[in-house]
Amino acid sequence: MLPHPAADVSLQPRLPFATRALMILWPAFVMAGVLEMMVFAVVDPDSLHWFGGEAFGWTRNAVYSVTFFIFWLVISTSAAITQLLESPVG
């Protein structure tokens, strides 16, 4: 019995870069927001200190924003690596 043509990944067209980027960035954006809410439900931004020393000295909005972008970067990197490993070789 011959294998199904859809099983051959080399025959499947690659999605455009913009589409692949949005497939990574949009879910990562949503999950970064969820993670942000979960973390700051239990952590007070005013109580954060540099490695136990002096206080950050940032506003609450600055802490929320920087943390959100860090979460978004980490989750996006994870999703991009997953897509890279999933893509056909060659």
Write up what this structure looks like.
The chain is mainly alpha-helical. It has one domain. The chain is built from two helices and no strands. Helix 1 crosses helix 2. It is elongated. The mean pLDDT is 86.
Secondary structure topology:
Layout: H1 17-40, H2 60-86
Record keyword descriptors for this entry.
mainly alpha, 90 residues
Secondary-structure content class: mainly alpha
> How many DSSP E strands?
0
Number of domains: 1
Beta-strand share of residues: under 5%
Give the H and E element order: HH
> Distance N terminus to C terminus?
26 Å
Average pLDDT: 86
Summarize this entry quickly.
This protein has 90 residues and is mostly helical. Helices cover 57% and strands 0% of the residues.
